[in-house]
Amino acid sequence: MPETVPERRAIPKERSQTCPFDPPATLRELRTQDPVCPVAMADGSSGWLLTRHEDVHAVLGDHRRFSSRGELRNSALDGQVTAARPARPGEINSVDPPEHTRLRRKLAGKFTTSRMAQLSERIAGIVDDALDTMELLGPPVDLVEAFASPIPSLVICELLGVDYAERAEFQERTKAMLTLGASADQFMAAVEEMTGYVTKLVVAKRARPTDDVLSNLAADEELTTEEVSRMGLALLAAGHETTAHMLALGTFALLRNPDQLAALRADPDLVNGAVEELLRYLTIAQYGAERSATEDVEVGGRLIRRGDVVVPALMAANRDPERFGDPDVLDVTRQAAGHVAFGFGIHQCLGQQLARVELRIGYKALFQRFPTLRLAVPPEDVPLRTDSITYGLARLPVTWDAVGL
Ligand code: HEM
């Protein structure tokens, strides 16, 4: 295999305000011209950007040759703070087996499809409360603030077992942790503060267990308090912003594709398939599934050296015409199974069933409650959030006909 000394390009992140649902245009070009493309990582190390579904699948499915170990990982996005540092106890997404298997086993049973189905009634209640508040506020409202953000936050509180009285504080702290534009130091300070807060909760749960995920984990003598706290924080961080962005961006996408919204309204049973298609079409986890090669390995005809970082562009894989016909079309009746919006392999999203339940209930109830929901500003004025690992909207101003709701 010939060895190349490639020129390394920056990782494409640019989104277009005119096509806010499409991945950066460069990714499409790369998929045909250079599908395993040399890139410069934020810390200057060697990286490879994968844009074909087949290659992304192969790498994420091979955890032996492509490691998730914290100290080897690099962030795809400038300014993000995941660059080289060791994984800390309980950081499930930054460890390989056997440690990963041990942690994942502790959590997996708490996020099964049946457990999530049991939670649906509570989620429906939380969604209804948010819709009631929107109605009370009256149009126009910012859907991110009134709907997309509070729902996953309250659901996570419910799951972890955060008291009602403490929820406002909890939400404030989460917001601080997820605030963008902060420097690496500010971000790490917010994470540490939040870890301290979750640790207090874990200690309290150990003393007075209640019926929730954090109490269950805290009661497990094989897990240390630090591990449980960092697992709790991972659930919080991974579970909040992702689902919030999907709720807002998915609503925006449906409002911009009125035929698809009409199909969904005409047959609400399409919602499960519509959620899969929105997950594929929007692929909000832009990056964040980086791996590093544990040995020299060939991917798509390129030699990847041991220690090199591999960056699967999930959003490009999900628009690969080799895998999905007419990939750039949103089609709520499509069989979108096989998308990699939740990743693939042993690290595939632990909270995917929870996210699905929140999205199905959320979209269905929103469009039922507000049949005349529409944008309150021209679409090009809807502010995008591109500076985060997960893509989304900063605000989504919407309005509706309040009379005769
Ligand atoms: C992992 C996406 C919601 C918890 C992942 C990964 C992706 C992802 C792409 C794989 C990362 C990798 O391979 O390195 C999403 C999206 C969501 C969502 C698009 C919403 C639409 C959630 C929720 C939770 C959650 C609601 C929990 C409450 C996790 C955890 C992991 C993970 C703990 C790490 C799993 C492991 O390393 O074994 N997610 N996620 N996610 N997600 Fe999600």
From TrEMBL:
What are the alphabetically sorted keywords of the record? Heme, Iron, Metal-binding, Monooxygenase, Oxidoreductase
Q: Which domain of life is it from?
A: Bacteria
Annotated region (Disordered) at 1-24
Q: What PROSITE patterns does the annotation carry? A: CYTOCHROME_P450 (PS00086)
Ranges annotated as biased composition (Basic and acidic residues): 1-16
- UniProt keyword tRNA processing present: no
Q: Show the stretches that span the lipid bilayer.
A: none
Q: Does the keyword Metal-binding apply?
A: yes
Give the protein family.
Answer: Belongs to the cytochrome P450 family.
Protein name per Swiss-Prot or TrEMBL: Cytochrome P450
